[in-house]
Amino acid sequence: MSLIELARFPDRILGELARGRLAADGIEAELFDEGFGALGLGVMGGVRLMVAPRDVAAAGEALGIQPDGADE
């Protein structure tokens, strides 16, 4: 299944909070690049929150963000 980056967070904790918020709404999400923080590399790109394309709008609404490429 392909996933789309919904948001980036500076550290794993913030990413986990966002993923937990989505899980409460029944939206599956994955965190990518979370292991880089343990190497001291987290500040280079952050933790990426990924969701299925079908969940982008609902996930963005749940987190109060507008996904990249969405009409304003």
Q: What does the largest sheet look like?
A: 3 strands, antiparallel
Based on Cα principal axes, name the global outline: globular
Q: Quickly give the structural class.
A: alpha+beta
How many DSSP H or I helices? 3
Per DSSP, what share of the residues sits in E-state strands of 2 or more residues? Answer: 15-25%
- Strand order within the widest sheet? 1-3-2
CATH class: Alpha Beta
Q: Which CATH-level-2 architecture?
A: 2-Layer Sandwich
Question: What is the count of structural domains?
Answer: 1
Percent helix range: 25-40%
Radius of gyration: 12 Å
Task: Give structural notes.
It contains three helices and three strands, in the order βαβαβα. The protein is of the alpha+beta class and 72 residues long. It is globular, with a radius of gyration of 12 Å. Residues 4-63 form the DUF2007 domain. Pfam families: DUF2007 (PF09413). This is DUF2007 domain-containing protein. InterPro entries: DUF2007 (IPR018551), N-reg_PII-like_a/b (IPR011322).
